[in-house]
Specification:
The structure is a single chain. The chain is α+β, with helices and mostly antiparallel strands. It has a single domain, classed as Nuclear Transport Factor 2, Chain: A (Roll), CATH 3.10.450. Helix content is about 35%, strand content about 35%. It has a six-stranded mixed sheet with strand order 2-1-6-5-4-3. A hairpin with a 5-residue loop joins strand 4 and strand 5. The N and C termini lie far apart (about 35 Å).
Length: about 120
């Protein structure tokens, strides 16, 4: 899926809005059933020791746990970088920590791969 700057910006705003709404169903609707999700928070929140989730069901549990812990979660969009079939969303995360997530999108525009990175 070739991403234009306009599509990437719209996608990023939709992703940020879903998280800021704390609506788990809206968040999950953006992810493919064939997901690979890498994050150090997977380890931090004791989901597994590898830091990777490969099923949508486990991803929903992880996100639900995160929303339950970070009840004041609010993301602030800083920058959107566009690739051929991916986007990098740079944003202010919990506790004002800067984060960047590289997301590959499948043919239907759903997120199929995430590599999340955090400062500090």
């Amino acid at each position: 899926m070739l991403l234009t700057e306009e599509v990437a910006q719209s996608f990023a705003r939709q992703w940020i809005a879903a998280w800021n709404s704390h609506d788990l169903a809206a968040i999950m609707a953006m992810y493919s059933k064939d997901i690979r999700f890498y994050s150090p928070y997977i380890i931090k929140l004791e989901m597994n020791a590898e830091g990777v989730i490969t099923s949508k069901e486990e991803l929903e549990k992880y996100f639900g746990k995160a929303l339950g812990i970070y009840t004041d979660l609010h993301f602030g969009l800083q920058q959107v970088l566009t690739g051929a079939d991916s986007v990098v969303i740079y944003y202010k995360s919990v506790a004002n920590r800067m984060a960047a997530e590289m997301m590959e999108l499948d043919e239907s525009g759903k997120i199929s791969l995430v590599k999340a990175h955090y400062h500090g």
